[in-house]
Write the structure tokens for this entry.
Amino acid sequence: MKKKISTLLLAGMLSVSMAAAPAYGSSTQKKITDAKNAKQEQQKQLDDTQDKLNSLEAKKGNLESYMKELDKQFSELEENLLELQKQSEETKDELEALQKELAKAEAEEEEQYASMKLRIQYMYENADQSYITMFLEARTFSEFLSQAENMSQLTKYDREMLEKYKKTTKEIKEKEASIKEQQEQLEQLKQESLDKQDEISTIMKTTHAQIASYESEISAQESNVKNLMSKIEGQQETINNLIKQQKDEEAAEALAQKEKEEQESQNNSQNQKPSSQNTQNTQKPAENVQQKPSENTQTQNQGSSQDTSKGKYLGNFRLTAYCACASCCGVSTGITASGTVATQGRTVAMYGVPFGTKLLINGTVYTVEDRGTAYGHVDIFFNSHADALRFGSQRADVYQVN
């Protein structure tokens, strides 16, 4: 009776555990779905933030190019201003020289005019006496005519020299006016260059402030990207852990089902054996009935110990293969996520367990050294891409041996 009650209690507990397992699985699946939805929303936020970051960097790049062009224009204006300053100094020196030359020419013109005026006045006042004196003093008429011609040539020379000085003075004044006009133009160009420099300088300050504003926004968006990537990575880790939990629950459910079937089989065996015994040997079969459960339990423990020797059973996982090429990994360094060098026969990739976890798969012990697949999906490393392709996709029981 006591044995029957124990059997009923055990059966009841198994029934409760079997009934509760789907509820756990449903709850875990909802958590996985919620976590995936949260990750998807965070990924969308990350994509939007990355788009904003790319836009800001593009705008900043355009302003930096514009800034370089403004800086080039400013440098050209500085060089042009220096050249204008040099020309202005040269015209100033030339003007000073012309002014000195003009003063000298005007002085010579005045002197020539005064001398000529004095001679003309003398000749006019003493014209008759001079001619009488030249006539009386001349030894011949030819000599008189020669002296008269000399006086006429002297007057002509005075007039020519006066015209020459006047012409020279006029030319110097015209050149002086030209240089003054040129100097005024240079001063105007210098002022225009200075005004343009001020304008570009103001634009450069505004542009620099805008670049600084973009840099601040870029820094903030980069921080957002970093935070979102961290959240997504954490969300992925949560998903992997939930998937592992779901696999563990499925394995526990399968194990409970197996134990239930074995218990039912054992109960059926116990219930059948007493009826097959002789009534004369009633006491002996009772002893056998008492011993059989322990024998069955021993047999069950032996089977369980064989599984335990393989390690902790994780479940029947999907197996795929990869290599160190860019097609499989995106890069071809051969360095795993844990920092080790991927090695055939040792390296596998899977989320949900720590790096260094030992997995027994089809009689081979592998080490989790890489990521890339969710929990329940083991990616096995091969040295060549062809070997990885040949391996294809399989399924196998996976045990954790450490």
